[in-house]
Automatic annotation (TrEMBL):
<feature type="domain" description="Leucine-rich repeat-containing N-terminal plant-type">
    <location>
        <begin position="76"/>
        <end position="96"/>
    </location>
</feature>
<keyword id="KW-0812">Transmembrane</keyword>
<dbReference type="InterPro" id="IPR003591">
    <property type="entry name" value="Leu-rich_rpt_typical-subtyp"/>
</dbReference>
<keyword id="KW-0732">Signal</keyword>
<dbReference type="Pfam" id="PF08263">
    <property type="entry name" value="LRRNT_2"/>
</dbReference>
<keyword id="KW-1133">Transmembrane helix</keyword>
<dbReference type="GO" id="GO:0005886">
    <property type="term" value="C:plasma membrane"/>
</dbReference>
<dbReference type="InterPro" id="IPR001611">
    <property type="entry name" value="Leu-rich_rpt"/>
</dbReference>
<dbReference type="InterPro" id="IPR032675">
    <property type="entry name" value="LRR_dom_sf"/>
</dbReference>
<keyword id="KW-0675">Receptor</keyword>
<keyword id="KW-1003">Cell membrane</keyword>
<dbReference type="InterPro" id="IPR046956">
    <property type="entry name" value="RLP23-like"/>
</dbReference>
<dbReference type="Pfam" id="PF00560">
    <property type="entry name" value="LRR_1"/>
</dbReference>
<keyword id="KW-0325">Glycoprotein</keyword>
<feature type="transmembrane region" description="Helical">
    <location>
        <begin position="782"/>
        <end position="804"/>
    </location>
</feature>
<feature type="domain" description="Leucine-rich repeat-containing N-terminal plant-type">
    <location>
        <begin position="39"/>
        <end position="58"/>
    </location>
</feature>
<keyword id="KW-0472">Membrane</keyword>
Length: 809
């Protein structure tokens, strides 16, 4: 299933992110200097630091929403040369005017690239009070521990530096800090796992008494924030967006007297409510998008004199919004089409999405000659008033009708529409031929409606010239997927999932040289595996789930082109619930290059989404099974990888070459007829988070080395013929008992832990009495345990979840 997402909310968020960014930058402005101050040792240290790193122009920097940030980088250290001896004049360097010691270093956005080593010469600049390294690329090097050596540090900004690993607790020794920014726009760490977050925050509150600004957005906190945070009375700005926080947010934080800005967006599991007592009077910005805050919006909020922005979309507030703050809200609960617009002949863009407008779209709207961009999404509109012929003068270029209650045929007011979003309505009848009259459509999203009939062949012309994304998922379309893709050079994504298409996949798909995503899930396509698509150099996602596909999953003869499979860029393949059969050759996974390794320097590519940045926030999305549930990824991260072959009739051994897929996150081979052992090479898959081989005929032991895979948070080996001990790793102990059931020969102390604490004395350590043991263990295994499942600790999938949950409407 595929959907599209657009909302003006994103624009708003982007704006505030930029705004905040510029506010934080204010902290980092330094005074200029007088010449001839520089100390030799300070200069040498600076040059050493410069030489530790390379300069590399970064690609676009993305904000938390995945939008490009307006960050301009250039190599500041280029001005650091021996010939210009006064290092106090070097760009980004500030010296103390009397002592000449370097007290400030602002190398933000300086194109620095390379590892920040634990022994970096930076730590020799002992007089530093301000250090800003934001927006550089330290290539996922571990967060150096020794920042506490910089004892005078007052402002530290390591935002967007792609440091990884744990945030060292030593940082909490920097008791002079007034501003600490460790945010990263994607939850790629640093994470706090070394020390549990509540303790970290308690120490932080205790030690960093002067802290005024704290930003740890994107850091995986995954715990409750302790109430001690509210003792940080110096705090003015608290930003913890996308931190995967749980539990109840301590609302005593709202009592911090000078707190001006609180941003807790995108923490879906964070509960809380706004207290009814008078919140501190300084609050200017309160943002709770995508949290589980609930209850009423108390009147006390309305009394906040300085409040400029209150953003609460996608949280659970109920009740009435106090009239005192109505004017400050983004959306205004309009229920009727605003008549005054009639006279706005020069109006170019109209965004009245996210209101409660009912009834018909008035005909006069299309006569506004200036109107080019029209957002009507997320209202309760049900139809169009007046003639349903395109109006000759209409210039509408962007039309967003999604998430309304439109019924009947789709009406296109203009022939120059390039971006058409009509998803989540109840449009019926055939896809109107007027779609084929659009002069150069780029995105056509008609998903989640009730269109019937076949996909119009006349779209072939538009395919050739302009269409980049075709989304028809969840309709009632019949017939076959027509052969209209000849020369569809711009086509990036096709989603026709959840329809009733039959027949074969068209040959012309082979010619879509730009295609990245093909999703035909849940149709009735009766064909063999489309190997001819392996010529598509950009195809990253192939979803064929739940069709009538059959035959082998590999070329009969690898000598044809030297590979069994092909598809150089494929990262997500889901062929589950078809009728594929045959055995897989043992070197089957050779040349699955995109899952075998990630390119070291390809940092930005890895933290972006498939489809890159499209106009109007359209992303291709996909639903995949993971950890036993279907996971809706409203955007597909380019680093996400998954192989789902489940529910077919594949037999033979699991190819040993699976061990080559070092970047694989999800592997599902369940419900097939695999025999032989679980390959020990699986232990090489250090990125693996979820492994399901249940319901096969696998025998032998579970390779003990699998116990070392720390990211493997979900394992299911049930209903096979496995024997021997369960591996020792903690991840194995955390599984639900049902992950092991139906294997008569599995045993081990850990199985006892998992499957219930009974008859401890009967656990037999020696393997000499195997028969007896097997019987015993089987009993143990069937007893449900009270151990909850703890999710994997690697963050990759968590991102998927976060994105999925806060984008769901
Ligand atoms: C830091 O340590 C590495 C080895 O771990 C060494 O190669 C490098 O020269 C050291 N750098 C400095 C600045 O001491
Ligand atoms: C399509 O739906 C319309 C009304 O919803 C119906 O009248 C028509 O018969 C349907 N056409 C097909 C081919 O099912
Ligand atoms: C697929 O098509 C073939 C012939 O075209 C037919 O024999 C077969 O029954 C079809 N399979 C299914 C599952 O419908
Ligand atoms: C693997 O696939 C099967 C069948 O499609 C599904 O039931 C199961 O939940 C999947 N396993 C995981 C871990 O998602
Ligand atoms: C697994 O990794 C080890 C060490 O890196 C290597 O020797 C072995 O060949 C790998 N196995 C496979 C199947 O990739
Ligand atoms: C493991 O797989 C079996 C069979 O596929 C299923 O019944 C069981 O619920 C699964 N266990 C978990 C924890 O998902
Ligand atoms: C184990 O999984 C089964 C099915 O997936 C579920 O019904 C049961 O509640 C789970 N047990 C525990 C302890 O999580």
């Amino acid at each position: 299933m595929i959907g599209s997402y657009y909302s003006s909310l994103s624009f708003f968020l982007r704006t505030i992110v930029l705004l905040l960014f510029s506010i934080l930058n204010l902290f980092n402005t330094f005074a200029s200097l007088t010449p001839d101050l520089c100390h030799q040792d300070q200069r040498d240290t600076l040059l050493d630091f410069k030489n530790e790193l390379k300069i590399q122009k970064p690609d676009e920097v993305l904000d938390f929403e995945g939008y490009p940030m307006n960050v301009t980088s250039y190599p500041k250290t280029d001005s650091w040369t021996n010939t210009n001896s006064d290092c106090c004049n070097w760009e980004g360097v500030t010296c103390d005017t009397s002592s000449g010691k370097v007290i400030g270093l602002d190398l933000s956005c300086s194109c620095l690239h390379g590892r920040l080593e634990p022994n970096t010469s930076l730590f020799r600049l002992q007089h530093l009070q301000t250090l800003n390294l934001a927006y550089n690329n330290f290539t996922f090097s571990p967060f150096p521990a020794k920042f506490h050596k910089l004892v005078s540090l007052q402002r530290l900004n390591l935002s967007q530096t792609s440091l990884t690993g744990q945030i060292p607790t030593e940082i909490l020794q920097l008791t002079s800090l007034v501003s600490l920014d460790l945010s990263s726009s994607f939850s790629f760490s640093p994470s706090l796992l070394a020390i549990e977050s509540p303790l970290f925050f308690r120490l932080l509150a205790k030690n960093l008494r002067s802290l005024r600004a704290l930003d740890m957005s994107g850091v995986n906190i995954s715990f409750e924030i302790p109430h001690e945070v509210s003792s940080m009375w110096s705090l003015r700005s608290l930003r913890l967006e996308g931190c995967n926080m749980f539990g109840e947010f301590p609302n005593s934080v709202f009592l911090i007297p000078n707190l001006e800005s609180i941003r807790l967006d995108h923490n879906p599991n964070l509960r809380g409510y706004l207290p009814d007592f008078l919140i501190n009077n300084s609050l200017q910005i309160l943002s709770l998008v995508g949290t589980s805050f609930s209850g009423n919006i108390p009147d006390s909020i309305g009394k906040l004199k300085h409040l400029t922005s209150l953003t609460i979309q996608e949280s659970n507030f109920s009740g009435k919004i106090p009239s005192s703050i109505g004017k400050q809200l983004q959306c205004c609960n309009i229920t009727e089409f605003p008549e005054f617009l009639r006279d706005q002949a020069n109006l170019q863009t109209l965004d009245i999405s996210n209101n409660k407008i009912q009834g018909q779209v008035p005909n006069w709207l299309w006569r506004l000659q200036g109107l080019e961009v029209l957002f009507l999404s997320s209202n309760s509109l049900s139809g169009f008033n007046g003639s349903l012929n395109p109006l000759p003068g209409s210039q509408i270029d962007v039309l967003d009708l999604s998430s309304n209650a439109f019924q009947g045929p789709l009406f296109l007011p203009s022939t120059v529409i390039r971006y058409l979003f009509a998803s989540k309505n109840n449009f019926t009848g055939e896809i109107p031929p007027s779609v084929c009259e659009l002069t150069s459509p780029s995105i056509l999203d008609l998903s989640n409606n009730n269109f019937n009939g076949s996909i119009p062949r006349c779209l072939e012309t538009q395919m050739m010239t302009s269409i980049s994304d075709l989304n028809l998922h969840s309709n009632s379309l019949t017939g076959s997927l027509p052969d209209i893709f000849t020369n569809a050079e711009r086509l990036r994504s096709i989603d026709v999932s959840h329809n009733r298409l039959h027949g074969k996949l068209p040959e012309s798909l082979t010619l879509c040289s730009a295609l990245e995503v093909l999703n035909v899930e849940s149709n009735e396509i009766n064909d063999t595996f489309p190997f001819h698509l392996s010529s598509l150099q950009k195809l990253q996602v192939l979803v064929l789930r739940s069709n009538k596909l059959h035959g082998m999953l590999h070329h009969h003869d690898s000598s044809v082109n030297g590979v069994w499979f092909g598809f150089p860029q494929l990262k997500i393949i889901d062929v589950s619930h078809n009728d594929f059969s045959g055995a897989l050759p043992s070197d089957y996974f050779m040349n699955w290059t995109a899952i075998t390794s990630k390119k070291d320097d390809d940092y930005t590519q890895q933290v972006s989404y498939i489809g890159d940045f499209h106009d109007y926030g359209y992303y291709t999305s996909v639903v995949l099974m993971n950890k036993g549930v279907s996971m809706a990824m409203q955007r597909i991260l380019t680093i996400y990888t998954a192989i789902d072959f489940s529910g077919n009739r594949i037999h033979g051994q699991v190819p040993e070459s699976i061990g080559l897929l070092k970047e694989l996150h999800v592997l599902n081979l369940s419900r097939n007829a695999f025999t032989g052992h679980i390959p020990s090479s699986l232990a090489n898959l250090t990125a693996l988070e979820s492994l399901d081989v249940s319901q096969n005929k696998l025998s032998g032991e579970i390779p003990p080395k699998l116990g070392d895979l720390s990211s493997l948070g979900w394992i299911n080996v049930s209903h096979n013929e496995l024997v021997g001990p369960i591996p020792q790793g903690t991840q194995f102990q955390r599984q639900n008992c049902s992950s092991y059931e139906g294997n008569t020969g599995l045993f081990g102390a850990s199985l006892k832990d998992i499957c219930g604490d009974i008859r401890e004395s009967e656990i037999i350590e020696s393997s000499s009495e195997e028969e007896e043991e097997e019987e015993e263990e089987e009993k143990l295994c069937w007893i449900a345990a009270g151990i909850g499942f703890a999710p994997g600790i690697v963050l990759g999938l968590t991102i998927g979840y976060i994105v999925a949950s806060y984008k769901q409407e």
